[in-house]
Amino acid sequence: MSGRDLDQAGITDPDMRASYERCRELNAAHGKTYYLATLLLPPAKRPFVHALYGFARYADEIVDDLSSTLSEQEKADWLGSWCERFFDDLRRGHSEDPVCRAVVDTVLRWDIPIEHFEAFLDSMRMDLTVTEYATYDDLYRYVYGSAAVIGLQMVPILEPSGPEAYERAKDLGVAFQLANFVRDVGEDLDRGRVYLPMEDLARFGVTRADLENRVVTPAIRDALAFQIARVRALEESSRSGINLLHPSSRPCIEAARILYCGIVDAVEAIDYEVFDKRATVSTLRRLAVALPAWRQARRARRTYGPGHPHGLHPTSP
């Protein structure tokens, strides 16, 4: 992260700057599309979005990566202890944790409701014990906490002009997560999980055992196509919310929408062969989206400034 970003965000304490930089590193290393979209925001906003990503990634690593040699109970104990410390830090308004220091600062600066973090961590706990979901409603409880609340956390930073922006942000977050589930069926099986609702699979005559065979059949293609249609419906519902954000925030979210939801286009392009191939959005496609968005972001910042907490005010000519 450039010092300019931190300077413009009003982050001056050396330890706090180091924490925000750690969050940026997590974003750059693990969320390449998300990171690319974040660069379209005004510099003063980027550190706070990096912090929210850093928090989500840090918690996810506790569940899936950092403690891979531990038992499920040991993971649960570790996650529980970390969560307790985080909420204690929020209550006192300061953290010594190298990641959570920036997260607590972001929550306080933007008055982000704590319940969004509670819901997120509840979903992380579910990953330790739940290996499949009977219905979409059951799955929605998980994706609300793992994805919808990420959008809700970000909206204050993006400066909405109306409450509808929050509802549409939930739709977009869920669309992103469902797109990942379609792409990552094989990887999720490696972790012992199936995120496609059993009820939806049964509609097409697909069982968990069929997925575990890791052979794409016509029935599995139909089941994946059904989930892709759901992603696209949620994506379409989310689009009106982008126009309710500050103009300097819109190019970032529009680019993220196109690229993340484009994952399902990539799944179709590999003929649903999700067990043997990884559907990816090509570098050329990323550039084709990012370059026009970058120009739009520059125009918006020149016209409206970087964003204002109390409304949209054009800059002086």
UniProtKB/TrEMBL annotation:
Entry keyword set: Transferase
Protein name: Unannotated protein
Gene Ontology molecular function terms on file: geranylgeranyl diphosphate synthase activity; squalene synthase [NAD(P)H] activity
Record flagged with keyword Magnesium: no
UniProt cross-references to CDD domains, sorted A to Z: Trans_IPPS_HH
Pfam families, per database record: SQS_PSY
Cross-referenced SUPFAM superfamilies: Terpenoid synthases (SSF48576)
Provenance organism: freshwater metagenome
One record GO biological process: isoprenoid biosynthetic process
NADP is among the record's keywords: no
Residue ranges of coiled coil: none
